[in-house]
Specification:
13 helices; 6-stranded antiparallel β-sheet; elongated; 10-stranded mixed β-sheet; Isopropylmalate Dehydrogenase; single chain; binds nicotinamide-adenine-dinucleotide
């Protein structure tokens, strides 16, 4: 059988030690892989590659089916781009899959029944990296949620549930506040959930959902979330299951996949043979399943569970009473190798082989009728509302009138309240009378009018209706 080529990065800090143990276990279990090593991380950052990787490495990653990556150290000081974000977005690895399972009574946890898989959207949301300093003292970040991106991640979550015999998919979002962006995520979730009548579905506003996850994680099964909530809550989930050192994650795309532990490079623990290799090993197991070597994935996972049951533990999960032998990274790896072929007696044995083929998504764009009906013009102005209003209140172009001024989303004119605290960024909303369509030239005329009165325009946002419905929030929303 031809070996499957995989890219391997040993990373920084504890990375090389946990990678060595992981590769040794995979080799002993008969994994059919051909390793292509690549250099990434701290030394690449420091030798002048701002993304932490020599761009030539893309060819190696592209030429392999999967990328097994140990954690890296991002050097202190600004100007370094997150290598993880670069890899995920460049390769289109849209799904971040993090199983968070408790191994009670062998690993201490307050949640003995926990078995949750977090499916985090990996490419959109506030991670688009589109940020602006709009005035000397105001910055903003753009949150992007698209139908195409949401369809991919939600469908992935439901397919994952179906293929892994899971019963329920829960959505966490915050569409009571972000009615457009999280609202779209929720709408697409409802549409796709309707196609999976064999899987239960439910949704929670993320704040109460997070509280329930921290308190009673056993009520959840698969949870799908936009990027930021998923980033935060998958670490919380891994930690309350037992330890962040025990969780692996998969980053799945249509054209590639990357597998890594969820923890960092723990530099303080490096070169001491103490780090727990389990997170990276569980990521490697997900990788073997992904590349079709499910039997080997099953063998390794069961040997690893057996090792936990035998009380052979690294320092981070060692507890007097429950644990039997405190071991280092290498000895833990050796123990897993010894247990290859065994199944756990108390913990539930695992069986892989249900992942199936890579999902190829067909996006379903919508085609509403769209009309430009106005513009929000953002102004940098330091002063009082009355002074501001006096300078701009006369601005109008044909049927387009100033309808509202807001500050940080709060309406200050008409009918503002004297208590509202105002900052130096003002938003002026211009709308056409009776929803008449306007032209881009009309918007240019408005910008000219601001220029004429020496007002500093810092941003403009076109306002559209879609099938007659406003595609912009109002201050009252
Ligand atoms: P960290 O996860 O590296 O370590 C935090 C603490 O957790 C460590 O001090 C250690 O006590 C414990 N720990 C983590 N992994 C362990 C393991 N496998 N075995 C035993 N104990 C373990 O987080 P940090 O200290 O905030 O970050 C260190 C570096 O890692 C930073 O440079 C950060 O940028 C980087 N980082 C990289 C990744 C990645 O490459 N995916 C992810 C997170 C952080």
């Amino acid at each position: 059988m031809n070996k499957t080529p995989i890219a391997v990065a040993e990373g920084d800090g504890i990375g090389p030690e946990i990678m060595k143990a992981t590769l040794q276990i995979m080799e002993s279990a008969g994994a059919s892989i051909e390793i292509h090593k690549i250099d990434i991380g701290e030394k690449m950052y420091l030798s002048g590659f701002p993304t932490g990787m020599d761009p030539k490495m893309w060819d190696i990653i592209r030429g392999t089916k999967a990328f097994l990556k140990a954690p890296i150290t991002t050097p202190q000081g600004g100007g370094f781009k997150s290598l993880n974000v670069t890899i995920r977005t460049t390769l289109g690895l849209y799904a971040n899959v993090r199983p968070c399972v408790s191994y009670f009574p062998y690993v201490a946890t307050k949640h003995p029944e926990m078995d949750v898989v977090i499916v985090r959207e990996n490419e959109e949301d506030l991670y688009s990296g589109i940020e602006y300093r709009q005035t000397p003292d105001v910055c903003s970040s753009i949150k992007i949620i698209s139908r195409a991106g949401t369809e991919k991640i939600v469908r992935y979550a439901f397919e994952y549930a179906r293929r892994h015999g899971r019963k329920k998919v829960t959505l966490f979002m915050k569409d009571n506040i972000m009615k457009f962006s999280d609202g779209l995520f929720h709408k697409v979730f409802d549409e796709i959930a309707a196609e999976y009548s064999d899987i239960l579905n439910e949704h929670w506003i993320v704040d109460i959902g997070a509280a329930k996850l921290a308190d009673t994680p056993e009520i959840f099964d698969v949870i799908v979330m936009p990027n930021l909530y998923g980033d935060i809550l998958s670490d919380v989930a891994a930690q309350i299951a037992g330890s962040v050192g025990l969780a692996g994650s998969a980053n799945i795309g249509e054209k590639g996949a990357m597998f890594e532990a969820i923890h960092g490079s723990a530099p303080r623990r490096a070169n001491q043979n103490v780090a727990n290799p389990s997170g990276l090993l569980l990521a490697a197991i997900q990788m073997l399943d992904h590349i079709g070597q499910s039997d080997t994935a099953t063998t390794i996972h069961n040997a690893w569970l057996t090792t936990l049951e035998q009380g052979i533990h690294t320092y981070d999960i060692y507890k007097d009473g429950t644990s039997k032998t405190k071991v280092g990274t290498k000895e833990f790896g050796d123990a897993v190798v010894k247990n290859l072929g065994k199944k756990p007696e108390t913990l539930k044995p695992v069986v892989y082989g249900k992942s199936g083929s890579v999902l190829i998504h067909k996006h379903t764009p919508t085609h509403p009728t769209r009309h430009l009906v106005g513009v929000d013009v953002y102004i940098f102005f330091r002063g009082e509302l009355e002074e501001f209003f006096a300078k701009i209140s006369h601005i109008n172009v044909g049927p387009i009138r100033l309808k509202m001024i807001t500050n940080r989303g709060v309406r200050v004119w008409p009918e503002g309240q004297p208590e509202t605290f105002c900052i130096e960024q003002w938003r002026c909303r211009f709308l056409s009378d009776s929803g008449r369509t306007i032209s881009q030239n009309d918007v240019v005329q408005i910008l000219h009018a601001f220029d004429h009165v020496n007002m500093d325009v810092i941003r403009g946002e076109f306002l559209y209706t879609f099938d007659g419905k406003a595609g912009y929030s109002s201050a009252e929303d």
